[in-house]
Amino acid sequence: MVGSLPRDQVSHCRKFHGATNPYYFPDRLIIPGAVAAKTGKVVPLSPQELISCTTNANGNDGCNGGYLDLALKYVKEEGLSAAKSSPFVSSRGRIPQCQVGRKVGKIKNYKQIPKRREDLMQRFLYNQGPLSVTIDARQLRHYKHGVLRPRKPAGGWQINHAVTILGYGEEKVPFWIVKNSWGTEWGEKGFFRLLRGQNSLAIGQESYVAFVSNEN
Question: How many distinct structural domains can be found in the chain?
Fold first, then answer.
């Protein structure tokens, strides 16, 4: 697909329904994909470090929720350990103290893309790599395959999930190629396609791109 990062250059679609808030998972934060776009190598990064080391920071609340920008700020300033050196344990309902291993992932900068500017999202995706975005995931529960064309609920969109945009294409309609975190049994082997250009699922409400060089 046009603008698509090969799926072997992103970390696996790990399953964590209800395990913890998706804002804290580094693959939601585009770091492995951004690095892979530059180096061709993927190192799974530690979600546990983000949870343990940013809880109570300006509104971040461990397994109960957090903010993409605060997580990205941490990775920019502190870097992030490999998942194998700081394994994920918060699915057991506890948050251990902040402990870090050797840093293997870091970004130089990150940028929030203006709201509802899917044209800019497409440009940044093509030039820089994957985007980290928030969405309303309610209509994803029964998704199987194909291009999802969601209807805006009467009460409006509700931001409750974070995913990674990896590419885009067109098959009768324009769409985004999006990586979810509900396991490879869900959707199209852990991915889904979403109607592009209509702010579907509020996908343009909050989106970030990471820079792994000093280009910006």
Answer: 2
